[in-house]
Write a structure and sequence with these properties.
The longest helix has 19 residues. It contains nine helices and 13 strands. The protein is α/β, with parallel strands linked by helices and about 300 residues long. Helix 3 packs antiparallel against helix 8. The strands form three sheets. Strands 1, 2, 3, 4, 5, 6, 12 and 13 form an eight-stranded mixed beta sheet that branches. The structure holds N,N,N-trimethyl-histidine. The site of N,N,N-trimethyl-histidine has 11 residues, from strand 11. This is Methyltransferase. One of its GO terms (molecular function) is methyltransferase activity. It comes from Kangiella koreensis (strain DSM 16069 / JCM 12317 / KCTC 12182 / SW-125). InterPro entries: EgtD, EgtD_Methyltrsf_superfamily, MeTrfase_dom, MeTrfase_EgtD-like, SAM-dependent_MTases_sf.
Length: about 300
């Protein structure tokens, strides 16, 4: 192996492959360095960004009805649980035996597990620190419980539709025959509302999007000029998805780890899709992944759905 090859990690090569593709892209996981996670927390507080507060309002107001579907003697598994705040909206009325938050950040998980154990002494918390794509393996002692997955935040919308179905099929295998999944799903709606939610006046979403360049500069030891890019987000109503990009303001060229990266003036680097579903689309997701749609709980303005799919 020559010196040049030896100096590039797989992660660096994956990012460079994205920046060399016909349609350049950066994986959305690179939004979430520390600064990006803080920026996302700011986004959830924005007036224009309705999904988070709308979902929390549904969880809070419908937790008793949701509790009726989540059998006692059960465990709740939350892939990508982060700081485990949303589950608390359910714990007032749902008393699972065990809560299994999974996340890549062991530090986040440990702090959350301690906080939850203090607040809910009756709840057993079994944190799993692993990559999102790793299968969630539960100890034998938990196998007899009814298993439910909690997957809020409309994160399901960041999968391409076929990948969303593949993910749900995995979850169907995980929960077995007497479980289910509680999904947060942002709904298809008018362009104006959706455009505003991803193009806020204060420019926080723009900063969140541009920050991904700051993050990959650190990983690639590169100096991609952030000032030569601008945030670009639009609602593709035909595909029913928000598309986020970084648009180049000028022709630019970089030599990164020995690889030449050329970006034309006006060229778009794709950073995220955020699919929005109709209620029929949610039913289709259920049917194609082996679940049965039991219930959609919507807010009064019908912006968002918390949906329970049973196995
Ligand atoms: C956390 C991925 C659901 O897609 O709405 C917020 C991320 N991107 N503003 C979303 C996001 C721009 C958010 N998810």
């Amino acid at each position: 192996m020559n010196v040049k090859e030896a100096s590039i990690s797989k992660e660096q090569q994956d990012i460079l492959d994205g920046l060399s593709a016909e349609q350049k892209f950066i994986n959305p996981k690179y939004f979430y360095n520390h600064r990006g996670s803080k920026l996302f927390e700011k986004i959830t507080q924005l007036e224009e960004y309705y999904p988070t507060r709308t979902e929390l309002g549904i969880l809070q107001s419908k937790s008793k009805e949701i509790a009726e579907l989540i059998s006692p003697d059960s465990i709740i598994i939350e892939p990508g649980a982060g700081n485990c705040t949303k589950i608390e909206y359910l714990l007032t009325d749902i008393h699972p035996n065990v809560y299994v938050p999974q996340d890549v950040s062991e530090e986040f998980l440990q702090k959350s597990a301690e906080r939850l154990s203090e607040r809910y002494p009756w709840l057993e918390v079994y944190p799993i620190a692993s990559d999102f794509s790793d299968p969630i393996e539960l100890p034998e002692v938990y196998q007899h419980f009814a298993k439910h997955v909690f997957y809020p935040g409309s994160t399901i919308g960041n999968f391409e539709p076929e990948d969303a179905i593949a993910f749900l099929k995995e979850m169907h295998k995980l929960v077995g025959s007497n479980g289910g999944i509680l999904l947060g799903v942002d709904l298809h709606k008018d362009n104006e509302t959706l455009h505003a939610a991803y193009n806020d006046e204060q420019g926080v979403t723009a900063e969140f999007n541009l920050n991904t360049l700051r993050h990959i500069n650190q990983i690639l030891e590169a100096d991609i000029n952030i000032n030569q890019f601008e945030h670009h987000a639009l609602y593709n109503s035909e595909q029913q998805r928000i598309e986020m990009y970084l648009r180049s303001k000028s022709g630019q060229g970089y030599n990164i780890l020995g690889q030449s990266i050329e970006v034309a003036k006006g060229e778009l680097i794709h950073t995220e899709h955020s699919y929005k579903y109709t209620l029929d689309g949610i039913e289709e997701l259920a049917e194609k992944s082996g679940f049965e749609l039991q219930k959609n709980w919507l807010d009064e303005e019908e912006l968002f759905s918390v949906s329970y799919l049973s196995s």
